[in-house]
Design brief:
Number of strands: 5
Largest sheet: 5 strands, parallel
CATH superfamily of the largest domain: Hypothetical protein af1432
Helix content: 55-70%
Strand order of the largest sheet: 2-1-3-4-5
Radius of gyration: 39 Å
Oligomer: single chain
Strand content: 5-15%
Length: about 350
């Protein structure tokens, strides 16, 4: 198998073609064409590594042929042949992508040197192209690996959340599905506010886990059917901090901390655990606070019946600016949020 590099000489003068062939034939595979059209036709059927091209030809001038070669085969190097009078034209052709030019009559060593330089440049370009393709393949592989890892982490994440929620439900059957309802209501509010999908996803996970701290509360208090005593209220108020401590220990749950810790803060500053007020309460926590209260008020309790929609709206209006963010209440009152 002949692995010599392939050179095409395009020149309308037989002697010029023959002279280049004699200089290069021992080193390379040489093909010849008597004009531009013939040369381009040859290249359409054969691989060419470098072209030696005369500028002045009757059927198609060398600059036109050069443009076509660079358009069709941009990696193929082109060396121009020109008479002294055509040097200015050759210099212009260099700006169109030719590697170099040789003046007629040319020196044998000059021909060999410029051809070798052109072929080295082509080899370098081919090598860089292959390296670039290898890098793209590696990038694609790594992206797939990262995506697979991310999907696996999300599965573990979802599994962790579901396990924690089941743990809450096992202790507090009376509020079964409460967290899922709060998450749905929170997403309705977030939609009305204009949250992005990423922000809504984070809010949903946080809302589902907002009561995780109840794992650390005495079951008798959680399951008590009558109103809580003052001491029991104090104990129950510990669940936001307990929940925050639990999720802080899990790196991929950090986005849930604000909601878990602050969903019982009040807009007027009389909430717990830190007594934050107004905009100092994270927006996500203000959203979940309203959603949490809505779900609680629309459930039957041993000591009261579930509120109707009109009663619920009245209670939210009463709490606007004190317990709740008034802007969120406005959205609900304006029927911009689906409650049921």
């Amino acid at each position: 198998m002949n692995n010599k590099e392939k050179i095409l000489v395009i020149d309308d003068e037989l002697m010029a073609r023959y002279a280049v062939q004699q200089v290069l034939k021992d080193r390379y595979n040489i093909s010849m064409a008597a004009g531009g059209k013939e040369g381009l036709d040859f290249m359409a059927q054969n691989t060419v590594d470098l072209v030696v091209l005369d500028i002045k030809m009757p059927d198609m001038d060398g600059v036109t042929v050069l443009r076509e070669i660079k358009k069709r085969y941009p990696d193929t190097e082109v060396v121009l042949l020109t008479a002294y009078a055509g040097i200015e034209t050759a210099q212009s052709a260099l700006r169109l992508g030719a590697l170099d030019y040789l003046t007629k009559p040319f020196d044998k060593d000059d021909v060999i040197n410029v051809v070798e330089r052109g072929l080295r440049k082509r080899q370098d370009l081919v090598r860089l192209k292959l390296e670039h393709e290898d890098l793209l393949r590696i990038k694609e592989y790594l992206e797939k690996e990262i995506e697979t890892t991310r999907d696996n982490l999300l599965l573990y994440y979802e599994g962790t959340i579901k396990a924690l929620i089941r743990a809450i439900d096992a202790k507090d059957h009376y509020t079964f599905d409460h967290s899922e309802h709060v998450a749905r209501l929170s997403l309705s509010i977030a939609d009305a506010i204009g949250f992005s999908k990423i922000m809504k996803d984070k809010l949903e996970h946080a809302a589902i886990m907002h009561d995780i701290g109840k794992i650390g509360i005495n079951e008798q208090i959680l399951r008590k059917e009558s109103l809580l005593t003052e001491e029991e209220h104090i104990e129950m108020r510990k669940h936001p901090e307990i929940g925050a401590r639990i999720v802080r220990a899990v790196p991929f749950l950090e986005d849930t901390v604000d909601v878990i810790l602050y969903h019982h803060e009040r807009f007027d500053g009389n909430g717990y655990p830190e007594g934050l007020e107004g905009d100092k309460i994270p927006l996500t926590a203000r959203i979940v606070s309203v959603a949490d209260t809505i779900d609680a008020m629309t459930r039957d309790r041993p000591y009261r019946n579930a509120l109707s929609l009109s009663q619920l709206i009245d209670e939210l209006k009463k709490g606007a600016g004190t317990q709740f963010d008034p802007e969120i209440v406005k959205l609900i009152n304006g029927n911009k949020i689906k409650l049921f």
